[in-house]
Amino acid sequence: MPVDRMRMRPWLEEQINSCQIPGLKWVNEEKRIFQIPWMHAARHGWDLEKDAPLFMRWAIHTGKYQPGKDKPDPKTWKANFRCAMNSLPDIEEVKDKSNKKGTNAFRVYKMLSSSERGLRKGKKRTNKESRPKGNKEVIHHYDADTVESTVSVYRLHLLIGHLFSFILYKLLTSNRNRRMRKSHPLQPKIFPMKIM
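-> structure tokens emitted (196 positions)
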């Protein structure tokens, strides 16, 4: 992998502005929203030159593919590209605008400004903070509804457990009674368990 290669966001902007890859274009340049052609390789009519040039260029740029030396592997190029896109903190997919099916499949992404990036990082930070780390004491705050529903679920589990135990007891003792009736004339008295 070349050490002095361009980072993905500026590289992508350069590719979009070059207008050399069909389907790779700005949807709204002012808002930094763009689309990438994303046709599935299993689709009829899929063509390496037409449907994977962006992924191939990224593989060449990152040093993962050397034309003439390596065998073309568009599936791996696409997977690597997707992983790289998903790992970027300043680009996110606009899922409700993407069309992932058909011959005109594409994904829509937005390049985030520094203020939008801060909001996105803030969300991630709160998720990480909510997870306990090491031996740190975790203080939980519960409202009355949460406690009441938890207690109700606990009681339901207890009741089901008792019911299961009672049914199992009945099954086992009835099988034993059948065997005993055949061999013993006197039948023992069975006392059922009390359910709380």
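The chain has six helices and four strands.
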